Amino acid sequence: MRNRIVVSIQAIGHRTIDSIWRLGVASRFFVWVLLKSTTSFLRFGLVVREIYFVGVLSLIIILVSGLFVGMVLGLQGYETLQKYGSESAVGTLVALSLVRELGPVMAALLFASRAGSAITAEIGLMKATNQLAAMGMMAVDPIARVVAPRFWAGVISMPFLAAMFSVMGVFGGYLVTVVFIGVDNGSFWSQMQNAVDFRYDIVNGVIKSCFFGVAVTAIAVFEGFDAPPTAEGVSGATTRTVVTSSLVILGLDFVLTSFMFRGVS
Amino acid sequence: MTDNLIEIKNLAFSYGTRPILNNVNMAMSRGKVIAVMGGSGSGKTTLLRLIGGEIKPSGGHVKVADQIVHHLSRDELFKLRRKMGMLFQFGALFTDISVFDNVAFQIREHTTLPESMVRDLVLMKLQAVGLRGAHHLMPAELSGGMARRVALARSIALDPMLVMYDEPFTGLDPISLSVIGNLIRRLTDALGMISIVVTHDVQESLKIVDYVYFLADGVIAAQGTPQEVKNSVAPFVHQFVHGEEDGPVPFHYPAQSYQKDLALENFVA
What we know:
The structure holds two protein chains of two kinds. Chain A is mostly helical. Chain A has ten helices and no strands. Chain A folds into two domains: about 1-35; about 40-260, no CATH class. Chain A has helices at about 1-35, 40, 45-55, 60-80, 90-130, 130-135, 140-180, 185-195, 200-225, 230-260. Chain A is globular and about 65 Å long. Chain B is an alpha/beta fold. Chain B is built from ten helices and ten strands.
């Protein structure tokens, strides 16, 4: 019995030490990516190519999801607000929910599932098939040539995707409440315009999406680069990217929100 | 600079506590094709990775062009690697770009040649491996043998001083095998480079190489010129060259008795 307790404590200790060690490796890798980013900016075409794969190809899922989230927000918002006779404030509710929270968070979660997993799988497979080793043997640094362009492409794409998510969401809310339900068009837009502050709401939302972009792509490239070079290794790394990114996005969102919105208006 | 472009002294390497190479000594001079042979898991690929500086030895050193590889900084190592080529066992082509772009990759990365000249160089390299007509294909559209030939063209794109070939003959049809063998020989002679060929194909490689090292259990078990190898009566070399099952090289991985594994030790026929 005593032996089993000792073994259990040992196992917990091992897992803890492994996790801390891995976090250290990931941090060192992240610094390495930043140091090797010169190539990405000198040859910006490499980044543009990756922006197409991680950003442009994510547009469909982001736009469609944004539209539906906005439509649901509009519907639910109208349902509640009309009880108090404030249905004209539904535009404000939709816009604030989207630019402050749902836009950055939902877009980042979708981005992690669609682009983050693809980045991990691609880099992991390149490692498993010796493509990264071959690049290294050709005196081309894989971190500078493969990892850094993907990282910066993700960081650049994320705020734009979040912005487009919010725009489509507002349009979805407009469709449901103004076009279908019949809320007054003028008050929908004017109340929104009065309530949404550029610096306080929109800029903070953009800042959030930048943080999420860095977090998701950093996790995706690290998991791909660190993946064991086997089929199970790559599949495990892809799963870890989605799970870890999602948790980090939600945790980071709380931390950022608590700094940005503390009842000060 | 000594005559030997590559000097390997007392080289040792182990994965954790499992020794892979132990006290390996080799010398290779320009214009030679060197074969490294040995059974599976004898440390041949590890040796190539040590020469290329991909991994660090646990003892001894590899000297390339008078520089100890594992003492070099990352930048110095990359500078040295520009003069090296490596053909990986399964080609390791970049799957997101075409055959042409794969061969052009290193030229574009390390030179400022105009695109018209890059095109000519790439087509010449592809012509040498018989795949000029396949320059527009993607790696996924190639057979295993074709992919290996493209990888060979890529590894010689910048006319390096040293090319390492990991199993270059595997998966090739007899015609391609002979052409690639002769190509390795001709390139080595024309460029005065060193070719290190890790291979199991004894008959084909003995036709083109200048010297053979046999690795077994991490040490050099035998070495000599192709003629010496063919005439050797050493049991190890004889078994390997003639592909015999019985001999000093065990075919079976160490295991407990077969009868015990099948629970037949008490069975009486």
